Amino acid sequence: MPNKFYVGGRIIKTALAVGLSIFIVQSLGFERVTLAAIVAMVTTQRTFYRSIVRSAARLGSVLLGAVLGTLFGLMLGNSPLAFGVVTIFVILSCLRLNWQDNILITAVVAIGIMSSEAASLPMYSVEQFLSALIGAVVALGINFLFAPHHQDDVKTKLQEIELSLSVMMNDVAREMLNTGKAAEDFELRAADIKREIKVGLELSKLFQEEQKFSLTKETQADRYRDALRKFSSQAERLVEMHNLAIRMEDDVPQARPIARLLRLLRRVQIRRLTGRPTHKDLLDTLIINLEADFKEMELPKTRAEFISRSSLVHLFKEIKKYYRRTGELPPVLQEEANIKRKLKKLKERGRERQK
């Protein structure tokens, strides 16, 4: 049973940001530490870019609340009527600025300043804004120093999905050669791949936010998203192949080379992702020869033979669609492939020296 109370990195970062912000504010002798804690908490996000956006929005709302609270506090005091009037102005101001999400914190700051017993409301407002600023700066610093590596997470997810697709391709090939034997839980595994692709797309979105500060990797996140979307289409193709393969009632001679072609596509798929040559000309020639073999097939003599051949013909069409889609996969795992090739060369050189 999974742990429902798992303490992740973001929770630890948030607690650290809140604690450090309060420590600094208390060391400076500020009366209240609430704003520093609130701003630090909402600033700690999953990406550094998102943290900057959130902190800017919250600091703006704190500044607006401080100004309105000071003005209405000096003019109307801290009567119930004054609190009601400042609330109206807070809501109208936030709506005018399109800050609907900041209405609550703006109102809390304004009412908090008006209800304070500080000798000087302007100085107390400055103190509150500085407290919020400290919370934002501390949280930004911690989020920058301990930023998660979403790129590695996306690559890992891509590798997992590619492996699952390869297993499913092998299952379809086996079904073509062993009529009447269907792979277990095939469609459930395809549904799992769909869910994993959604997770991968979310991770790539987070990585895309990280790239907003990097000019050298501007399109890498887009390549990841492109590969994941193509994987989604490939999963649908494999489900259709599976449905056609399990319809085959008799063995068909052409099933063996087509199954071999599907297994070759497993290698093409990983080679495309790792930026290695795929021998496209040889595969194109193989497909053309298989198409010629289909044209020379004798007419079926039984109903079972007709269903098997018809299913195989449609399955071959799906494989060709899968092949075309595979040719569009971007080399998103190229770095790992280059590292593996370098390690292989080093090992070979080491063996030669030993000889």
Summarize the structure.
With 355 residues, this protein is mostly helical.
Secondary structure: elements and pairs:
Blueprint: H1 9-27, H2 34-43, H3 48-76, H4 80-96, H5 103-114, H6 121-145, H7 150-177, H8 186-210, H9 220-245, H10 255-273, H11 280-295, H12 303-326, H13 334-354
Structure description:
By secondary structure, the protein is mostly helical. It folds into 2 domains: 9-145; 150-350, Putative aromatic acid exporter, C-terminal domain (Four Helix Bundle (Hemerythrin (Met), subunit A)). It is built from 13 helices and no strands. The mean pLDDT is 83.
Features:
355 residues; mainly alpha; Four Helix Bundle (Hemerythrin (Met), subunit A); 0% strand
Largest sheet: none
Alpha-carbon distance between the two ends: 54 Å
Structural class: mainly alpha
Helix content: over 70%
Give the count of structural domains.
2
CATH architecture of the largest domain: Up-down Bundle
**Overall geometry:** elongated
CA gyration radius, whole angstroms = 31 Å
Domain Putative aromatic acid exporter C-terminal: 154-322
GO cellular component, one term: plasma membrane
InterPro entries: ArAE_1, ArAE_1_C, ArAE_1_C_sf, UPF0421
Membrane topology: Multi-pass membrane protein
